[in-house]
C-alpha cells in the first residue's frame, strides 16, 4: 500500500528515504528524517545527496503550503554544508516570495541538538497535476505565464 506521509501525493523516493512531514502551512514546512545505514557516506554521517533531497523536499513543501493542490518542480537550488548531519534531523522550510508561477524558498537542516548542518535556497515552478489515461500516474503541465 502506498503511503503519502502527509505530502498529499505519492513520492517513492521520499518514501524510500523515510521523510515524514510534520508541518505544512502558511509558507512554512517541517520534515523529520533519520538516515538509515545505506544513506550514510564514507564518514558514517548522512550523505550529502540525502541531505540535499531533504532540503529540496522541505522547500518544495513550503512552496506548496498555500496551494497544496499544485505541484512544484525544482528550477534551481544552492546548498551550503556547515557541519556533518548526524542522528535524527529536522528540516525547516520557508516560502520567501512567490509569483503566480514561481516560488523562492529557503530551507535549513538541524541535528538533534539544534545545530545547523546545512542550508539551501531554491526556486520552484508551480505546475498542475493531470491524470494520465485513467491510471494513478501524474503528468506535469507547466502553468502558462500569459
Walkthrough of the structure:
- The protein has a single domain (12-142), classed as Thiol Ester Dehydrase, Chain A (Roll), CATH 3.10.129.
- The chain has 2 helices and 7 strands.
- It has helices at residues 12-17, 48-64; strands at 20-25, 28-33, 71-81, 89-98, 102-110, 116-132, 135-142.
- Strands 1, 2, 3, 4, 5, 6 and 7 form a 7-stranded antiparallel beta sheet that branches.
- Strand 5 and strand 6 (116-132) form a beta hairpin.
- The protein starts with 11 loop residues before the first helix and ends with a strand.
- 26% of the residues are buried.
- The model is unreliable at 134-139 (pLDDT under 50).
Concise description?
The protein is an alpha+beta fold. The chain is built from 2 helices and 7 strands.
Amino acid at each position: 500500500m502506498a503511503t503519502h506521509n502527509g505530502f498529499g501525493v505519492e513520492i517513492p523516493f521520499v518514501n524510500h528515504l523515510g521523510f515524514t512531514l510534520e508541518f505544512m502551512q502558511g509558507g512554512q514546512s517541517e520534515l523529520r528524517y533519520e538516515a538509515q545505514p545505506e544513506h550514510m557516506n564514507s564518514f558514517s554521517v548522512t550523505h550529502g545527496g540525502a541531505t540535499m533531497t531533504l532540503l529540496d523536499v522541505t522547500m518544495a513543501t513550503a512552496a506548496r503550503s498555500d496551494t497544496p493542490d499544485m505541484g512544484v518542480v525544482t528550477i534551481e537550488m544552492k546548498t551550503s554544508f556547515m557541519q556533518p548531519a548526524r542522528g535524527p534531523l529536522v528540516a525547516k522550510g520557508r516560502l520567501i516570495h512567490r509569483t503566480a508561477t514561481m516560488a523562492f524558498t529557503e530551507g535549513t537542516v538541524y541535528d538533534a541538538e539544534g545545530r545547523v548542518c546545512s542550508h539551501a535556497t531554491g526556486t520552484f515552478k508551480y505546475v498542475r497535476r493531470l491524470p494520465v489515461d485513467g491510471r494513478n500516474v501524474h503528468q506535469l503541465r507547466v502553468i502558462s505565464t500569459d
